[in-house]
Design brief:
Elements (H helix, E strand, L loop, with lengths): L17 H9 L5 E3 L3 E8 L12 E9 L7 E11 L6 E2 L1 E3 L4 E9 L13 E11 L11 E9 L10 H6 L7 E6 L16 E2 L4 E5 L2 E10 L7 E12 L8 E2 L1 E5 L10 E4 L2 E7 L6 E8 L4 E10 L4 E8 L2 H8 L10 E2 L8 H12 L5 E13 L8 E8 L11 E2 L4 E8 L9 E2 L1 E9 L5
Parallel strand pairs: 12-15
Antiparallel strand pairs: 1-3, 2-7, 3-4, 4-5, 4-14, 6-14, 7-13, 8-11, 8-12, 8-14, 9-10, 9-13, 16-28, 17-18, 18-27, 19-22, 19-26, 20-25, 20-28, 21-23, 21-26, 23-24
Helix pairs in contact: 3-4
Length: 446
């Protein structure tokens, strides 16, 4: 069957029906065993007092399927991270224990035929899906597993993205993330449910990935008790065959937020690992923002938000000199220097949030590009336990504008701003305020 590709993609980068199409194709897989990944680093942190998970050196099984569509010839490259059997002849599901954190970091080539690589040896990625699945191939929800993150990242730049000089001038931006997911990639049912986990660019656009890149996967079993949980970590990329007949524009995947800006002193360390969150005030709500200028003119093709929604109140993406406006509205406010406490009564109330937005955009020199509101669902981690709230994808209010499709000018200032609840007595009151965008840059925009 032809893989469906639309000229435009709805908010959050998903297209109705793609998940069913993907699963139908995947059912045809004939899995091949691959060698153990290169430069492997495995970290396992069991819950206090818990036994270590049963674990062997991880291996990968792989499947390649025809996924051609009206955008051209293409394949799905699907990989499942598992563990080797005792005799080393088979790949079995991973096993994680209740309360355990587990991470895997390794290198692995795409290992596809040359016809799916361009003249530089890079691949064109139009769609991707990274998510843990059970032995039957069904998505593992949260709970029981917190899909903290999975990334396929590289050191190089996309062909038409930005130069190293631009990166030196605009350090909050990065282009190293080729594909991936996080806990809040899944949607609540009314926003798309499982469909949101499969990201697809509109027809005519693709991310560029080199042959060799690094996988980083972190899972957390949120159950307080229970038998070991069997899981594959499934990483899937749709690769388009380069062709003169299929004109494709490269997009740069850019991230605004603390995690792209080096090692700031207000990053949070947990068990020695750098999670690159900023610390929230314990007793007061707060505001956090990052700002910089666009290195080139271009068009935003797709976008989404990442945060820890137990704290998130709302997120805004704004164009213009927001920081100067903030200083006149909130004493001590600045961007990129940690969270600014908000001391006004009911600071996160809807009326005050709208008042802040109105004051920031008054006069027209600051534009409101888009907004995000957190989504969470109540689930019991195991039967008999009280329900807890778990994150789902943040979405824009119905009346708010969408960033997808917006054009940006070279030198135009962009600010990502979030309002957050007080950290309270949370063990780790660390927050992300991260906006991701796929941007098609112009070569000579103004």
């Amino acid at each position: 069957m032809a893989w469906p590709v639309n000229a435009s993609i709805p908010h959050l980068g998903w297209q109705p029906g793609l998940t069913a199409s993907y699963r139908s194709l995947r059912d045809r897989c004939e899995w091949r065993q691959r060698v153990a990944p290169h430069r492997l680093l495995v970290q396992l942190i069991p819950a206090p007092g818990a036994a270590q998970s049963e674990f062997r050196v991880p291996h990968v099984s792989e499947c390649t399927l025809d996924a051609s569509g009206d955008d051209g010839a293409a394949i799905w490259l699907i990989r499942r991270l598992g563990r080797a059997s005792a005799d080393g002849r088979h790949v079995l599901p991973l096993k994680v224990n209740a309360g355990m954190w587990a991470s895997w970091y390794f290198e692995m080539n795409l290992n596809v035929s040359k016809e799916f690589l361009d003249a530089r040896g890079a691949a064109l990625v139009t769609s991707f899906r990274f998510w843990p699945v059970d032995p039957g191939g069904g998505d593992v929800p949260m709970p029981p597993l917190h899909n903290h993150h999975a990334t396929y990242q590289h050191e190089g730049l996309a062909r038409a993205a930005i130069t190293p000089e631009y990166l030196r001038n605009f350090p909050p931006m990065r282009t190293s993330l080729g594909a991936g997911s996080a806990a809040d990639y899944g949607c609540v049912e009314e926003d798309g449910g499982d469909e949101c986990k499969l990201k697809q660019l509109p027809r005519g656009y693709a991310r560029t990935l080199p042959q060799s890149a690094k996988y980083s996967i972190v899972l957390n079993d949120v159950r307080p008790r229970g038998d070991p949980y069997a899981v594959w970590y499934e990483c899937a990329l749709r690769l388009l065959r380069p062709s003169p007949a299929a004109a494709v524009r490269d997009v740069a995947h850019l991230t605004w937020g603390l995690l792209s800006g080096g090692e700031p002193q207000h990053s949070t360390r947990i068990d020695g690992a750098m999670f690159k969150t900023f610390e929230l005030p314990r007793a007061l709500p707060s505001l956090y923002c990052v700002t910089h200028r666009w290195p080139r003119a271009g068009r935003i093709v797709s976008e989404w938000w990442h945060g820890h929604h137990r704290f998130t109140s709302v997120g805004f993406v704004l164009s213009g000199d927001v920081e100067s406006r903030l200083r006149g509205l909130i004493p001590g406010a600045s961007c990129g220097q940690g969270a600014t406490p908000l001391r006004g009564k009911d600071a996160l109330g809807p009326a005050n949030v709208q008042k802040l937005l109105a004051n920031l955009t008054a006069g027209g020199d600051v534009r409101h590009l888009c907004s995000y509101e957190p989504r969470r669902v109540a689930r019991a981690p195991v039967a008999g336990e009280a329900a807890q709230l778990f994150d789902r994808a943040a979405v824009g209010p119905a009346a708010a504008p969408s960033c997808a499709g917006a054009r940006v000018r070279r030198g135009e200032q962009l600010t990502v701003l979030c309002l957050n609840a007080a950290g309270g007595d949370a063990p780790h009151a660390g927050q992300h305020c991260v906006w991701d965008a796929d941007v098609a840059f112009e070569h000579d925009g103004v």
